[in-house]
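Sample entry (142 residues):
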Amino acid sequence: MKALIEFGRKAMFYVRVLSGYEERRIRSLRIAMQQKIQQAEAKKAALNKVPEQIILSEVRRMVDEMQSLNKKLDDTEVAIEKYFNSVDKDAEMIMEVQLKEEEKSMKEMMKIMQKQALLEKTEAEVISDKHNADGVKNKVSS
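Predicted structure, serialized as tokens:
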């Protein structure tokens, strides 16, 4: 019985090959396999693009974040400059007042020094006049 079943199988195979059924079946299986391979390659390409898209979206997000931080930094710098402008004006006014006071005190010191120099000059003249008078007396008495 086994031999009869085996003979039947071989006969059916020959009939299918001769009728072209087996060839069409093989072709349809090959086409199906090619379609599955193409679908798998398309999925693979899509998966390869996904990380690129994720990276690009992350880079865009980071660039946007950096731009917003730069804007905040610029705004902060402007605020600091405004704050320090008023401080600089106040400091400038204080410096001007101090310079005026120092100028006044220097002028007063110059006046005092001139008076002192005049006093010393007059004292020196008085002393020299005394020496001259003493010298003249000594000459006259000799």
